[in-house]
Amino acid sequence: MATHAEGEHFAGSNKLFISVWIWLLLITGLEVFLGYIHLDLRLMLTILIGLSVIKAALIVAYFMHLRFERLSLVLTLVPMLVVCICLLLVFFPDSFRNRNLHYRFETDKPPATVSGDEGE
Amino acid sequence: MSTEAASADQLTATEWSGGALPYRVGHRKLGMWLFIVSDALTFSALLIGYSYVRATSEQWPTPFPFYPSIVFSSVMTLCLLSSSLTMVMGVSASARRDYKAIRKWIGLTILFGAAFVVLHLIEWKHLIDEGLRPFSLPAEWVTRWPQASPLFGASFFAITGLHMFHVFTGLIYLAIIAARAKKLKHEDVEISGLYWHFVDLVWMFVFPMIYLLSVDFTPVVH
Lengths: 120, 222
Description:
The complex is a heterodimer of chains A (120) and B (222).
Chain A: H1 5-8, H2 14-36, H3 41-63, H4 71-88, H5 92-100
Chain B: H1 2-5, H2 8-11, H3 27-56, E1 64-65, H4 66-95, H5 99-130, H6 139-144, H7 152-179, H8 186-211, E2 215-216
Parallel strand pairs in B: 1-2
């Protein structure tokens, strides 16, 4: 064990973890509060994703103690994940285009015809 | 344990210096990290797919009133966040080789995780009783959101279902770790912690994207 002094060292105190937990609760509380007040959907989405990325970073850095691991591990795991997720965003232009191809329903039509092909 | 005898400096030297453990983590921990990255991509793909369907739909149901639905799912979030804290305590007890404390903290983690699953199943049952199915909406929703996509159920059940499956698997995993704590190395306990925190992390995206973006603001007509 003595030879592994550096590798086996458990970084982070309970006090640190409790303060991270409180931060996570506060951010969650803020998110729920934003759900309570009525915001524009796009603004809401942007804020929520931003806050969630902060929460994810806190969890990964402290609870999963990636912050206390070697930088080479961080560089192996994080950038490729971020790049792959960003690549997935390539689908969105198509989803907006697709939306514009939709048949526009007449507003005075009864709603029953809309779900006619859904069976129920 | 012949590797233990080898010089630690040699083992954990950087990749450029020819170290055998260039990341300074064991192969199991590295394996769990790689699994987590691939699983993160699975969930990203699902959430992006859900966003795609939602963005391409004329209308999307927003069926969750602040009370009780959002308050209920906030309690679920609290359970999962607290279970992460107790798991951290379990891992730090494992670093001290304090087996009694490991069992206590991992037991608490399992309790919080089980509470999450139970609450989630109650919510599922409520929605299914309302008439929500993977490919059709309850009749009441169709009158409220006439042009809404019927894929709400598919995205909701797929994403929260896969997440719930992960929580459930995590509970079994943690129970095995707690039962075998004495035979396992500290790193094995740490690895189970990684998995558990990842499940918590996924919920940090599922909760806002599925619930908080579908809050029902229209006053309920009785």
